[in-house]
Amino acid sequence: MSVCSLYPALRVTMPWSCSESHLGSCRKQLMFCVSRTTARRRASTGVSCSADTRTVVIGLAADSGCGKSTFMRRLTSALGGVAEPPRGCGAYSNTLVGDATTVICLDDYHALDREGRKEKGVTALDPKANNFDLMYEQVRALKSGVAVEKPVYNHVTGRLDPPELIRPPNILFIEGLHPLFDPRIRSLLDLSIYLDISNEVKFAWKIQRDMAERGESLESIKASIKARKSDFDMYIDPQKQYADVIIEVLPTRLIPDKSATEVLRVRLVMREGVKHFTPVYLFDEGSTISWTPCGGKLSCSYPGIRFFYGPDTYFSDEASVLEMDGRFDRLDELIYVESHLSNLSTKYYGEVTQQMLKHADFPGSNDGTGLFQTIVGLKVRQLYEQIIAGDGSHGLKREQLRRCLRLSPV
Ligand SMILES: Nc1ncnc2c1ncn2[C@@H]1O[C@H](COP(=O)(O)OP(=O)(O)OP(=O)(O)O)[C@@H](O)[C@H]1O
Ligand SMILES: O=C(CO)[C@H](O)[C@H](O)COP(=O)(O)O
After folding, report:
1. With bands split at pLDDT 50, 70 and 90, how would you rate the model's confidence at 31?
2. How confident is the model at residue 4, as a pLDDT?
3. In whole angstroms, what is the distance from residue 357 CA to residue 74 CA?
4. Coil, strand, or helix at residue 56?
5. Does the beta carbon of 159 sit less than 6 angstroms from any atom of ligand 2?
6. Which of 6, 14, 60, 65 is a good FRET partner for 277, with 20 to 30 A between their CA atoms?
7. Atom 7 in ligand 2: which residue has the minimum CA distance?
8. From the CB of 155, is ligand 2 less than 6 Å away?
9. Which of 405, 267, 285 is nearest to 344 (CA)?
10. Which residues on adjacent β-strands are paired with residue 318?
11. 70: β partners
């Protein structure tokens, strides 16, 4: 039984009873419940505190090895702060906790461990291998301001470790294979993002990581891609139809060799009419523009850089597309491109360039993947600020609750 079920008003669902090994985190959870309940009690005694705060929830979907972790590092940085695993959790936590953000990896909701999947002959991409009921319950609890005991999937052992305590952050990212799969979970998302990496690029990135960095053979990489392909097509790829923002990564069109993947063509697809998300545009909103910025202000070696902007449709919905093909020679010159883009949600002139320079060592920093991930990070910050500002009671309750929790620290 969950310790928080002692406090039904808080409605926390926990998957495990408190065994000896979970005692520490269960105790922390109990203290959290008590302090929240104290906060509620204070509400009736003059200090107005309430447990019904809300967390903004963002979903990021992509296949494995498609740059989700890299994207998350850029996002948490744009939102201010370095992300670390939660304190007190096991050595193999997949969670990143920043000042305002928490990123949870949905691999933690694998219902079948590595052995179990092998026995049943299913991949981790198959919905049968994942616990969507628990995923939904816990994301819903976090969104309504309640801490949860989340399972932890250990990628080293292939088994589930003891759960870890996750407190509701200002912004919760749920990243992984299936954040947009279950309609109940989709309904909790304030923004949904899909990273759509073409087969050629995915293959090149997998080789780069698994062969060069992890010593796997080319044959085993090919076999693993092949084994996952039909489940990817059936369960992962269709989720993009539900995304508000899609980053497509394709081979360049600037080089005649169609298999070239060292230069990328990246498209930022932004659905129209998404609440708190205004699409970025180049020069003139709604126009169709092709721009080759290479000249006195932007150094471009072969094959150069080409931008495109214009209206489009995505799964029959109206969308705007900003595209960059090619790569930057000098990142500091990105300011020239930034000055021609509008609706960037920056707080000061040059913020995109500054963010890109700050993480120049991240993969994709010299092309559209890094540029568009950075822009999406700034848009997420603005979305969060608009939600808080637009819902006065939301901001007020959160601040009140913070004060309450300070009065009775967890
Ligand atoms: N924008 C990029 N440009 C070039 N290479 C990239 C880019 N993003 C990621 N990669 C490559 O892809 C590999 C996988 O990236 P990352 O670990 O971020 O993906 P992931 O989706 O989190 O993977 P997994 O789900 O398997 O943990 C990296 O090691 C890197 O080599
Ligand atoms: O797709 C994946 C992650 O996105 C992994 O394959 C899945 O989580 C299973 O992990 P492991 O291979 O470590 O057992």
Report:
1. very low
2. 34
3. 11
4. strand
5. no
6. 65
7. 124
8. yes
9. 285
10. 313
11. none
Query: CA triplet 64, 161, 166: central angle to 5 degrees?
Result: 80
Pairing of the two strands 317-326 and 341-342 = unpaired
Which of 238, 103, 124, 230 lies closest to 182, judged by CA? Answer: 238
Q: What does the DSSP assignment read for 188-228?
A: T-SEEEEEEE-HHHHHHHHIIIIIIIT---HHHHHHHHHHH
Determine contact, residues 173/123, Cβ cutoff 8 Å. no
Determine the 3-state secondary structure of 114 from DSSP.
helix
pLDDT band at 323 (very low <50, low <70, confident <90, very high): very high
Phi then psi for 247, rounded to 5 degrees? -110, 110
Q: How far apart are CA 197 and CA 323, in angstroms?
A: 14
Q: Please state, in angstroms and rounded to a whole number, the distance separating the CA atoms of residues 405 and 385.
A: 22
Task: Tell whether the model's pLDDT for residue 211 goes beyond 70.
Answer: yes
At residue 155 the predicted structure's pLDDT band, cuts being 50, 70 and 90, is very high
Strands 245-251 and 264-271: antiparallel
CB neighbour burial string for 21-42, b if at least 16 within 10 angstroms, e if fewer: ebeebbebbbebbbbbbbbbeb
Phi, psi at residue 127, to the nearest 5°? -55, -30
pLDDT at residue 41 tops 50: no
Alpha carbon distance 227, 220 (integer Å): 10
In angstroms, the CA 313 to CA 2 distance is: 47
Between CA 159 and CA 6 the distance in angstroms is 30
Full-model pTM:
0.84
Residues 73, 362: contact at Cβ < 8 Å?
yes
Alpha-carbon separation of residue 55 from 153, 372, 408 (angstroms): 24, 24, 21
Mean pLDDT of 198-221: 87
Q: Are 141 and 13 in contact (CB under 8 A)?
A: yes
Picking from 130, 125, 274, the residue whose alpha carbon sits closest to that of residue 193 is 274
Residue position matching structure tokens 């979903």: 59
For residue 116, the CA-to-ligand 2 centroid distance in Å is 13
**For residue 345, how far is its CA from the centre of ligand 1 (angstroms)?**
26
Cα separation, 61 vs 194, in Å, equals 5
Backbone dihedral angles phi then psi of residue 89, each to the nearest 5 degrees: -90, 175
- Counting every residue written for the chain, the total comes to 410
CA of 209 from ligand 1 middle (Å) equals 8
Of 288, 319, 282, 326, whose CA–CA distance to 304 is shortest? 326
Look at phi and psi of residue 350 and say left if phi exceeds 0, alpha if psi is from -120 to 50, else beta: left
Q: Which residues pair with 248 in a beta bridge?
A: 196, 267
